[in-house]
Amino acid sequence: MPEATPTDVRLEIDTHLEDEKIEKVIERKSRDIDRADGVPALDEQDRTDLEALLAALHIATRLDRAEASAGAGPASVDYEESMIEELRSDARRLGATDELLGIGATDKTATIGVPSTRD
Predict the structure, then answer these.
(1) Whole-structure pTM value
(2) Where are the beta strands (DSSP E) in 1-119?
(3) Interacting residues of 2 by C-beta distance below 8 A, sequence separation 6+
(4) Is residue 59 within 8 Å of 9, Cβ to Cβ?
(5) Position 76 pLDDT exceeds 90
(6) What is the largest CA-CA distance in the chain?
(7) How far, rounded to the nearest angstrom, does the alpha carbon of residue 114 sit from its chain's CA centroid?
C-alpha cells in the first residue's frame, strides 16, 4: 500500500491534477518500487518521499507536459528540465534505480530482419 499522498506530491511539484489521478500515479509508482531490483530497504518516511518524488517526476514528464509547453518559450523549457533533474537527483539519493527514474528506458533500438539473398 502506498505511503505517499497527493499532498506529498504537491510539495514536489505544482500540479492541477485531481487527487484521484495523483493517487493512481502514486499507486503505480509504489508497485514499480516493489518490483525494482536494487532499491535499498527504506523506512516509512524515505518510502513516502521516494513515492512522492517518482510520482512528481511522472507528472512532470508525462501528464503536465502539455501545460508546461504553453509557458514562456525557452524559459519554461529550461525550468522544466532543471526541475526534472532536481527530482531525479533527490530520488537517486533515496536509492532510486535508473529504471525507476526512466533513464535509458527511451534509448532507441531496432531489430531489422533482412532475408538472405544468397543460397
Answers:
(1) 0.75
(2) none
(3) 23, 26, 27, 29, 30, 51
(4) yes
(5) no
(6) 66
(7) 37
